[in-house]
Amino acid sequence: MTDERTIDEAEAERHRAKMAKRKAVQDAEVAGKTVEKGLLIVNTGPGKGKSTAAFGLALRMLGYGRRVGVVQFIKGAWHSGEQDALARFGDLVSWHTMGEGFTWETQDLKRDIAAAQAAWARALELMADPAIGLVVLDELNIALRYDYLDLDKVVAALKARREDLHVVVTGRNAKPALVEAADLVTEMGATKHHFAAGVKAQKGIEF
Amino acid sequence: MTDERTIDEAEAERHRAKMAKRKAVQDAEVAGKTVEKGLLIVNTGPGKGKSTAAFGLALRMLGYGRRVGVVQFIKGAWHSGEQDALARFGDLVSWHTMGEGFTWETQDLKRDIAAAQAAWARALELMADPAIGLVVLDELNIALRYDYLDLDKVVAALKARREDLHVVVTGRNAKPALVEAADLVTEMGATKHHFAAGVKAQKGIEF
């Protein structure tokens, strides 16, 4: 590939000086951050990538040989690619699909509540396991939104987590009390979505 | 765990009726989406999760036994957890770290441009490989933002990709022409960030 851009010495030097200054700022900023702690992370918003980013974090943890726990609160009726992929990590992943599908699939409120409570009980077990470095609570926000679980109790338990435990909660419409308790909250915004153009959910992308 | 919420029959029935209606709407919506195509996906915005979600997508693809190509345009000076984790998938992952670190680390504009161009040449090779189902172009937006690559040529090549190839581009400040060409654009917004509270970048979370 040809180099379309020619850089003269003056431009190269201006760039070097600017970047040296920027590096000093960055280094000072990094040096000012000294706290290490298990984070409560919330991925919310209407856009794509809430669960996907949580599983990406799981992948990162696994890369360092740390154990990961996953509880799926809502999804469960279908099979997912990430589940198969994480199976390759054997004992490092403790995966629990506790949901029975979307609320409009079960159409049974009592059953939905019972499933959410069983999932939460499993989440508490995983959070108590000192071998686990990251717990993914996939779609917990949905269970909280529909009052399947007691918000105050859930937030209190998340705040009381082990000091070195990272927890990621996903799902739209995160409750304000959870956002308040979290260390890191990312709102995934749907700037543009292919579903609007009639493209269907595709293997490897949506599931 | 005790069930704090009691559901009477009337409430259960109202829920069932509401969810049955919602299922009809959902089913109709799903049925209306029939197109299958390789997507051009852009993860941008100031929040966390742009690269992480891209690697989560890679994981999902790998779960279905599809091959994944990764080109890192900027990062490269450090080791990452996801790289180690993906190594477990052997030949299914073709990983190329072509960056030499942040621009303020190299402080050398010519070198940055040369690295970006070599990375783009590698990206074109991966995109041309029919065995690959997903190509992750990590931090390509940064290389475009600093004009290390010709935007028009890059967008034209991405648009001309194979019909069944998914491509994910990550990085802040996605160029409008790229957003225009994309099928799916997610803006990761930083609602709350632990760096602001003095918490440092931690193994398994940030890298």
UniProtKB/TrEMBL annotation, chains A, B:
Its EC number is 2.5.1.17. It is found in: Cytoplasm. Its main location: cytoplasm. Residues 10-30 form the Cob(I)alamin adenosyltransferase N-terminal domain. It catalyses: 2 cob(II)yrinate a,c diamide + reduced [electron-transfer flavoprotein] + 2 ATP = 2 adenosylcob(III)yrinate a,c-diamide + 2 triphosphate + oxidized [electron-transfer flavoprotein] + 3 H(+); 2 cob(II)alamin + reduced [electron-transfer flavoprotein] + 2 ATP = 2 adenosylcob(III)alamin + 2 triphosphate + oxidized [electron-transfer flavoprotein] + 3 H(+). Gene3D superfamilies: P-loop containing nucleotide triphosphate hydrolases. Keywords: ATP-binding, Cobalamin biosynthesis, Cytoplasm, Nucleotide-binding, Porphyrin biosynthesis, Transferase. InterPro entries: CblAdoTrfase_CobA (IPR003724), Co_AT_N_dom (IPR025826), P-loop_NTPase (IPR027417). Pathway: Cofactor biosynthesis; adenosylcobalamin biosynthesis; adenosylcobalamin from cob(II)yrinate a,c-diamide: step 2/7. One of its GO terms (molecular function) is corrinoid adenosyltransferase activity. The keyword Cell inner membrane does not apply. The keyword Cytoplasm applies. It holds the Pfam family CobA_CobO_BtuR. Required for both de novo synthesis of the corrin ring for the assimilation of exogenous corrinoids. Participates in the adenosylation of a variety of incomplete and complete corrinoids. Belongs to the Cob(I)alamin adenosyltransferase family. This is Corrinoid adenosyltransferase. It comes from Aquamicrobium terrae. The lineage of its organism: Bacteria, Pseudomonadati, Pseudomonadota, Alphaproteobacteria, Hyphomicrobiales.
